[in-house]
Amino acid sequence: MVTTVAVLLAGGTGTRLYPASRSHRPKQFLALGDDDRSLLRRTADRAGFADELFVVTRESYADRVRDVVPEATVLVEPAGRDTGPALAYAASEVRERVADPVLLCLPSDHVVGDGFRATAETAVDVAARTDALVTLGVEPDRPATGYGYVQPGADRGDHYAVEQFREKPDEETAEALLEAGCLWNAGMFAWTPDAFLDAARDGPLDGVVDALETGGDVERAFEETEAVSVDYAVLERAQDVGVVPAAFEWDDVGAWDALLRLTDGENATLGDALTIDASGNVIASDDKHVSVVGADDLVVAAFDDRVLVVPTDDAQRVREVVAELRDAGKF
Questions:
Q1: Tens digit of pLDDT for each residue in 263-318?
Q2: Rounded-to-10 torsion of CA 215, 216, 222, 223
Q3: pTM value surpassing 0.90
Q4: DSSP code of 29?
């Protein structure tokens, strides 16, 4: 019998949701949509069927993670280097602590609909039986340009071989990928620690894996490794990768405009808001009242002492604001 270990990634900041998301208040601790639970708490509840629960985060968030998910074992990564090094560290730590584990690796800041458990359990079973690296591929409902795609290959019954990964495309390419039956790469994975670490040795994570495997200076290895996603560092290079199609609704809530997809109304509102002759807006605040009159397709977000106003079509550009604020030490 294998042990299903849910590993939640909770070290990022979610910069495109600024100013709700800040360096001291990252996206995974926010409650978005109609649910008053934080995204991290919702992810932990969704993974409640697992035998063990781990959360990987950075030192500055560790105490808050323990408060939000007291049942989890908290792993503090040596340095923030994106999902590749974080998942290598998690694989090594879980292997030392848990007998016969299969990792179910999940972002802690996504919104996921009904049907997740069945798909996740299939992915875990495939990883346990085949030693493949398994990704969950969500069936697209639009030609999104902000997501990566997975192109399924040979049909293996309960999953498909991955033909290739396709990075965030332009709109014309995204439409072609939908026509070709490609799936969104949702960043949810299943694998055994041995299979993952073996695949990670040949690539950007070589130094991190070597330190983890030999008892070397892991902190130094992290510091010397460039930030790199697990997709680029491992999955796109691995020989045996499978995809389990998922039919559940999914959104990574990567930017403010995503809230419009989570509401049935003319506007998406969080907090105390009033709209008059306005539609297509995202209006969000903490303890402030915000009124929008005669304006359409705007994001108006007011948190702490910060206010953001941007067209919803330009919501991705919030990262430019954050980059300048970080350079000035004001994020």
A1: 888 999 999 999 999 999 999 999 999 999 999 999 999 999 999 999 999 999 99
A2: 150
A3: yes
A4: G
**Can you say whether the dihedral through the CA atoms of 294, 299, 302, 307 is positive or negative?**
negative
Residue 317 CB contacts under 8 Å (≥ 6 apart), including other chains? 310
Superfamily for the 3-251 domain: Spore Coat Polysaccharide Biosynthesis Protein SpsA; Chain A (3.90.550.10)
Task: Show me where the domains of the chain are located.
Answer: 3-251, 256-327
Q: Predicted confidence band at 1 (pLDDT cuts at 50, 70, 90)?
A: confident
- Answer whether residue 34 shows pLDDT above 80: no
Cis geometry, peptide bond prior to residue 140 (ω within 30 degrees of 0): no
| DSSP states along 56-85 | EE-GGGHHHHHHH-TTSEEEE-SS---HHH
38 residue type, one letter: S
